[in-house]
Design brief:
Elements: E1 2-7, H1 14-27, E2 31-36, H2 48-57, E3 60-64, H3 67-78, E4 83-88, H4 97-102, E5 108-111, H5 114-119, E6 125-126, H6 142-147, E7 155-160, H7 169-180, E8 186-191, H8 197-208, E9 214-217, H9 223-228, E10 229-234, H10 243-250, E11 254-258, H11 263-266, E12 274-276, H12 281-292, H13 295-312, H14 315-333
Parallel strand pairs: 1-2, 1-3, 3-4, 4-5, 5-6, 7-8, 7-10, 8-9, 10-11, 11-12
Helix pairs in contact: 1-14, 7-8, 7-12, 10-13
Amino acid sequence: MVIVHPHLHPRRSGVTAHVELIARAQAALAEVKVLGQQLPDTLPHLTWGALWRRSGNERVLWHAHRNNELLWGALLRLLGRKLTVVYTSHSPRPVGRFTRFILRFADAVVTLNRIAAAWVHHPSTIVQHGVDLERFSPPVDRQAAFSALGWPGRLGIGVVGRVRPNKGQGDFVEALTPLLDAHPEWTPVLVGLAKGADAGWAEGLKAKTAGRLVLAGEHRDVVPFYRGLSILVHPSYAEAFSMVLIEAMAAGCCVVATRIAAVPEVIEDGKTGFLFDPGDVEGLRRILARLMADPALVASVGRAAREEAERRRGIAHEAKALLAVYEGAERARQ
């Protein structure tokens, strides 16, 4: 059986990064192909023609990550191809009626946490994301890693991800700004794409900090930023499962995140990170004030986060769990 991960989306996103990562991890355990765009040539690609030929003669496991990919899998099976279809819901909110309707075409559904499992209104298996522990690893010297980024100050605190209001960067800036004068060694950073009207909004956030906020822009390789930042704030209002959290933990960051979706399942408050309620600017400010005044605590929590990532958050855990889902879906079709 060949496992195919389609990527039928015009731009890279968090889902893209996940497809790339899981395809690499599973390639060590089974025959895996990717199909579509925005994925690197270093992955084994399959053309539509080759998919058509192979699915006519052998079983193909089609792992869809978006609605259009699920529909393509259903169509190919309707046309007589030998496909077993698995679908992962990456939605950060309850899925709509259309998604609930097309889930009937999947032989198995994967969700990322207990809340997401309830959102799909369909039987599912929870498989949380894993991270490449070799790539996302702590630096030997975090201050040196931050200095290498070329920004002022000695210590970095920031948000990694698409820059827009529902990602919570506004709360981050509002909470942090009153603390900056007392902590000139800390430099605030936003790493991520700010598009259209959001670009102007981001500039407004920078103005609120009297220009101290660094707008780093979008970067394909975010590892240097995780290694440079001491505190990673994840103030989002909605996520299904954020790769940023476990990537930052694996890199030894002290993570401060909103208490949403699977986050409390990933971070133990006060031990491997800190949690606050979405939109609670005062609560976030209290946490940041404590951390910025105590770099030793920041480093200690970052080490605990890395140890947790090593125990339970490696990509190998996810790859094996998904293979078990595939096997169950195959048996159900026989």
